[in-house]
Every structure is written in structure tokens, then in C-alpha cells.
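Progress note, project year one: complex with magnesium ion.
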Amino acid sequence: MPQLVKLFQFTLSGLTTGSTYALIAIGFSIIHNATGIVNFAQGEFVMLGGMFMITFYGYLKLPMAAAFVLSVFAVAIIGLLLEKTALRPSRSQEVLNLVMITVGASIFIKGLSMAVWGKSAMTLAPFSGEDPILILGAAIMPQSIWIFGITLAVVAALSAFFVKTRTGKAMRAVAASRRSAMLAGIPVNRMIALSFFLSGALGAVAGIILTPVTTISYDAGIMLGLKGFSAAILGGYGSMIGAVAGGLLLGVLESLGAGLVSSEYKDVLAFLILLIVLFFKPGGIFGKGASRRV
Amino acid sequence: MLKIRNIDAGYGKIQILHRTSLHIREGEIVSLIGANGAGKTTLLNVISGLHPLKGGSVMFQNREIQAMPPDRIVGMGLIQVPETDKIFPPLTVLENLEMGAYLRRLDRRALQSEIEKIHALFPILRDRGDRAAGTLSGGERQMLALGRALMGKPRLLMLDEPSLGLAPVIVAEMFGIIQSLNAMGTTILLVEQNAREALQISNRAYVMETGRIVLTGAGVELMSNEEVKRAFLGNDYKEKWER
Ligand SMILES: Nc1ncnc2c1ncn2[C@@H]1O[C@H](COP(=O)(O)OP(=O)(O)OP(=O)(O)O)[C@@H](O)[C@H]1O
Ligand SMILES: [Mg+2]
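Model obtained:
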């Protein structure tokens, strides 16, 4: 019986980190759908979200909700700037070149963050205390509930946005065919800019809710980005349900692997899964089987 | 209404359009005919702002549009139904139509009434409303593409081979619809390889050969032109038609 409780405990904590992977993965997907590129700065958005929250909430003592909104907005604007100042003006619009620009941007953001926030890891107090809640013998931290709730709310809001609103439909139209979207009169460049704004916001949310659990430092972006990327690949790159399923699954597998085997291999597991998926089912769980080049 | 002067355009180093000029007056149906690879699609894409031009100018309603982004050109009422890639396959039929009116910012009721008009024209689209557009047949896709273009309230509608791949019955229907759209006030530029039908319904026509306009005149006039007959209304074509 304690063994079962242990499994349940690992699964719960896996779902917690998995939720944030899901948010990061959705960010990757949104930009990929709009532009066809992989945004290597996605992980930096996550790191920045945590850093801004620490600054606004931890240091400047703004009310939590205000600090949250402000941090999300700040990173969304950084996403927008990345598109407007680095990607849009690029003479070459070749996918590979654009991807390299995001790699450069990621290094730049990391360096700047080190200068601003220093090298040591920082953390944030959990949003509502640290007294665990017991469910069926497993302990769940209040922060986990925050993470589930916020992730659920964000995913629901995004789904509604893409299905119900004129702009959301236009973004799906651009993903389906950029050329056709132009001929329908959809301002494609504005939709691309919006995709960076949204991905920045999503990354920030992930960083904000995750920081109380894991701490954050200027160089945390790469690992988080790669986790989100693996989750997106696992679920089927470009698909929103895929990103959520991939994120949760990756989180749980990691947590089970760390708990039952060894935590040393926790990060390796994500890459192992990434490789296995790319090798055997490049379309991911929700993919159509055909691989799409990135 | 549309005046194209001395357009040069191409892909990389290969020049396709050579000083192409043509004009369309309000209310006309003008067709552009020419063999495979003549450059008809390239010309339409230049007009729509999808393809850069190296020289010349495009005037629409007395304004130069060659430097405008595609969405502004659509906003002016110059709308193309392309030859390929004409719909959004993962979006539903209804959503496809709605996207055609993207720039018009209609409220729910106005949008609904515009969609009703399209449904009246193409009843099949009503039945298919909630299906993904990618599941439609070729003919249905063509109707959806035309319906989507009409949702944008075109003043000048450019149709790139609307009869391509359609069954003969549907081709006839399509030409009928084009004529009635024109009768209701939409100016039409029709690109076709089905030269006979196109010329029959056109006020005027241009013949394009390897990126150059080589012949122009009234539609019926061109039908009796020896060269056109040989190139586009040739014997084998005629036989196929009469069978
Ligand atoms: N993307 C492209 N890159 C390079 N060459 C192209 C491209 N698109 C078209 N071409 C070439 O440009 C020429 C004109 O093509 P275009 O599609 O404009 O002809 P078209 O008159 O529309 O022909 P069709 O009747 O087959 O539709 C052709 O020789 C074609 O091979
Ligand atoms: Mg063509």
C-alpha cells in the first residue's frame, strides 16, 4: 500500500512540473504554427517570467495579482520585440536563419539577465503557504494546486480564443496556409507578432508558477526550453492538445523515473524520450504520422 | 479600374513577365488566356501583392498598389481566388467563409446575413458548414474558395482557372455563376485554359504567351481569330468537347 501511495505521490508531483512543460510546449507550438520556426528563446521567456515576478513581487512588494500580470505582460512585450526587432528585419527569411536568430537572442537574453539579476539562484515564496494537503495519503503542496489551476485556466482560455474569436481563427488560418491567409486579407505579419506575444506570455506564466517549486537562475532557460520542446515533440509538434498531453506525460515519466530509479537521470530522460519519439514516431502522439521538418 | 503597365517579374534570375500591360474597366468580364506556364498565375500574384515586381506599375481605382501589402489590396476590394492552396483545410467551412470577411469586422448578425447570401449561391456549403474544409471534394472546394472571396465584397474578382479539375456540368454552372456575379456589379478578371467558355462570356480578352501579351480584342472576336483557334480551340479540343 505505501508503494501505491508513493506512486501516486510521484505522479502528482510529475503532473505539477508537467503542467509547466505543457505551457512551454504550447508556446513553442504557437510560434511554430505561425512561422514554421522553432523558437530557441522560449526557455528564456520562462526564466524571465520567474525573474520579473521575483522583482515585482519579492522585491518591490507589489500585490501578487498585479505583479503576476505585470510580469506576464513584460515578457510578452519581450517576445514581441524579438519578432519586431530581430526576426522581421532579417534579410533572409529562411527558416534556418530565423532559428539561428532565436538562438542568438536566447544567448543575449541570458547574458543580460545575468547582468541584471546576478548568478545565484533565486526563489519565491509559494503563493499560499507550505502546509501540504493530504489526498489519499499523498501530500500535495498548495503551490501544485495553483499550478494546476492556472494551467487549466490558461489552456481553457487559449482554446476558446482559437475557436471562438476572429483573431484566434485568423491565427489558425495563417497556420493552415500563410499564402491563403494573405489572399483572404488577414494581416499575416500582425498574426506572427501576436504569436510571439502570446508565447512570451505563456512562457512567463510557466516561469512564475514554477519558481516557488524549483528556484530560478539566469541560466535556467535552456533546460526548461528543452523540456518544453521535448514535450511538444512527444505530443505532436504544433498541436495544442498534443502539447498538454506531452507536457503532462513527460512530467510524470520524469518524476517516476527520478523517484523509482534515480534522480540523477531525471534530465536525461527527457532527451531519451525526445530521441525515441523522433526516431519511431516523429509525428508525436497526436501527430498525423508524417514528420514535419523544423 | 485596374491598369497594369509594363510589368517585369520573375523567379530569381528567370524573368517570366516581360513588360506586361493590360487594363480592365469597371463592370467588364475580361479573360486572360494562355498555355501552361505562360505566366498568368504569376501576373495575378503580382497584382495581389504576393509576388514582387521588378518594374512597371499596378493601378487600382487610380491608386498605385504595387507596394501595398496583400491585406490592404484585399481591403480595397481587389480579391483573388487562387489556382492552388485556395482554402484553409483544417478550419471548418463556416470558419473559412468567416475569414473571407476578416477585414470587414462585421458583427455577428451582419456576418450571419453575409454567410446566408453565400449559402443561397452555393447550397452545398450550408450542409457542409461544420466540416473541415479539407474534407471537401474539388468542386466543393472551388465553391468555398469563391464563397470566401465574395465574403470580402470584391469590386474586382480575379479567378485563376476556376474550372480546373471540375466535372463538365459543374464547369457550366461555374461560368453561369461568374456571369451572374458580374451582372450584380462585380468586375471580373478570368484566367482560363477553357478558352472557349471563357471567351464566350467575356467582353474582352488578352492572350498571353511566354510572359507577353500577344493578342487582345473582344471575346467573340478572338474566338474567330485563326491563331486563337489553332492554339486554344484546336481540333482535338473541339472533338473532345463535342463527344
Ligand atoms: N515558385 C516558382 N519558382 C520558379 N519558377 C516558377 C515558380 N512558379 C512558377 N514558375 C515558372 O514561371 C512560369 C510561369 O508560371 P505561371 O504559374 O505563372 O504560369 P501559368 O500561366 O499560370 O500556367 P498554368 O496554366 O499552368 O497555371 C513557368 O515557367 C513556371 O515554371
Ligand atoms: Mg496558373
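Confidence is low (pLDDT under 50) at residues 289-294 of chain A.
Residues B 11, 16, 34, 36-42, 83, 193 surround adenosine-5'-triphosphate (ligand 1) (CB under 6 Å).
No further modelling is planned for this target in the current period.
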